Amino acid sequence: MSHTAHIPSHRKPRRSASKLAVRAGVAGGVLSTLAMAGTASASPTAEPVAETTLEMPVLNLDLGADVSSAVTVAAENTRLAAVEGELTAQEESARTGAAAEAKKAKEDAQQKADAEKKAKQEADRKEAADRANRSSARSTLATASASDSGSGSKSTSGSGKSTAPSQGTGTVTAPATGSAAAIVNFARAQVGKAYVLGGTGPSSFDCSGLVGAAYRQAGITLPRMSQQQSTAGTSVSLSALQPGDILYWGSKGSAYHVAVYVGGGKFVGAQNSSTGIVERSLSYDKPTGAVRVL
């Protein structure tokens, strides 16, 4: 039977260097003692040697505990290093993610600002084009009105009736008595008709087109635009209005709207495309001022 049959593995366990050194020292001491004893017994003249018992020092080394403690410390250091490495990786990932989110938010904000800027530029361009179109249309109408002023006067007919002569632009004289009634009656007769920018009748009007058409019933030719109509006569107080006076909204000379005062605290005007031509109380939309042409 093999001497190692009782050992689970033929491979002997590794011994630590300290244990091997101690055992080597003990073995050396034993061999030295045996050699001395053999020499003494071989010499015939040697005296009998008294039997001596050597007591070997007992080594109380807790090597297992030291190794276990070292392994524990090493494992704890490894664990701490792994934890620190994981935390560092998480922090780096968080910083990277935050930087990416900040970059994306900045890009989104820039795109939104660019879109708003582009939309504003487009709106400004369209508004400028609309203003140019309106200005062109008004200039065309004003030119047409000026060219027609020569034909606005009515000559004496065979019946012997005559009307007031046409007045040049900006020079309006007082008409005959009763002209205010003709202006007011005409304005009220247009209530309910449509508002159309540039309209001068008979089916639709804009604000200055209605005022000009009403005054033509009295033989008076007014400037075409509301700005000039607001300076066509003498300024009067809103507390001393008379039927036929021209009401205006905005500054005199740059008014944006005009209407005809019809008495009783009311006016008739071509307000807008939604309401058309209406009769309203002054409290509905109080005018800025008034001028009297009659």
Plain-language structure description:
This protein has 294 residues and is α+β, with helices and mostly antiparallel strands. Among the domains are: 67-134; 167-292, endopeptidase domain like (from Nostoc punctiforme) (endopeptidase fold (from Nostoc punctiforme), Alpha-Beta Complex), CATH 3.90.1720. It is built from five helices and eight strands. The protein has helices at residues 17-42, 63-148, 179-189, 207-216, 226-229, and strands at residues 194-195, 204-205, 234-236, 246-249, 257-263, 266-272, 276-281, 289-292. It has a six-stranded antiparallel beta sheet. Strands 1-2 form a two-stranded parallel sheet. A hairpin with a 3-residue loop joins strand 6 (266-272) and strand 7. Helix 3 (179-189) packs across helix 4. The protein is rod-shaped, with a radius of gyration of 60 Å.
